[in-house]
Amino acid sequence: MSATQAGSPAADVPRASRVFGDGPLSRACALIHTVLTVEGLLLLTLAPSLLGLLFLGADPANLPLAALCLAPLGPALSAALYALHHRSRDLMELRPARAYLRGLRLNSAAALRMWVPLLAWLTVIAYGLTHFASTGLPGWWAVLLGVIGVGALLWGAHALVLTSLFTFRAVDTARLAGYFLLRHGRATLGAASLLVVAAAATLWWTEALPLLLAPALLLSLLHTSRPIITETQEDFTA
Question: What percent of the chain has pLDDT over 70?
């Protein structure tokens, strides 16, 4: 007779281990743990940048310095997106900190290649809008600059997803992000809605709120970007 008969306590251990952590409450706890860990690591990564922004203040003349302080934001968001995408739903297999650090190590260089030019372009647009009254240009130029800025942010959202989850050359990531702007209109609209939420939170409450909501916003970005992720996996990877 076997030492682990069916119905014996020893035989029930594997079955119990299989079902532990599969319930909705356990999955919710796993998600909350992952979100809080990613949020803490994101704030820790960006602490020097946030301190620099605090000292700079809101003077438009400080926009170039503010952009320099925001340079680490791209790699940090990429690492957070990587960790959230690879999160485990099993309470026994939660390693969000390891996933975040792995994403930071793997994606920092690629994220900077996308983020720094985008940040420089957005800084030029923001500087032009804050000093628009002194240019003497017609008002529709300001509207055009705003539209270009929004388009650049939407492109950046797609580029962030591609950079965080795939390994492409910078030029290929840029082309794919532009291609998906029109190819997947719902994904682009989803990214636009997240930008509206972040802008509303900044204007109506505080500039820190979008950063505190970053994991939730990134989870929503992952959800709305599923068509982009699926097509990239099927058509653009080996």
Answer: 88
CA distance 137 to 157: 30
The CA R_g of the chain, rounded to the nearest whole Å, is: 22
- Closest residue by Cα to residue 167 from 223, 108, 101: 108
- Which helix (H) or strand (E) segment holds residue 227: the answer is helix 226-235
User: Would you tell me how many other CB atoms lie within 10 Å of the CB of residue 145?
Assistant: 17
Look up residue 228 and give its two tokens: 């982009």
The answer to whether 57 and 78 have CB atoms below 8 angstroms apart is no
Phi/psi at 77 (5° precision): -65, -35
pLDDT of residue 163 exceeding 80, the answer is yes
The pLDDT value given to residue 14: 45
Q: What is the pLDDT of residue 213?
A: 92
pTM given for the model: 0.86
The residue type at 123: T
Residue 33 tokens read as: 């743990």
pLDDT the model gives residue 91? 66
Interatomic CA distance for residues 136 and 129, integer angstroms: 12
Following DSSP, what letter does each residue of 135-158 receive, concatenated? T---HHHHHHHHHHHHHHHHHHHH
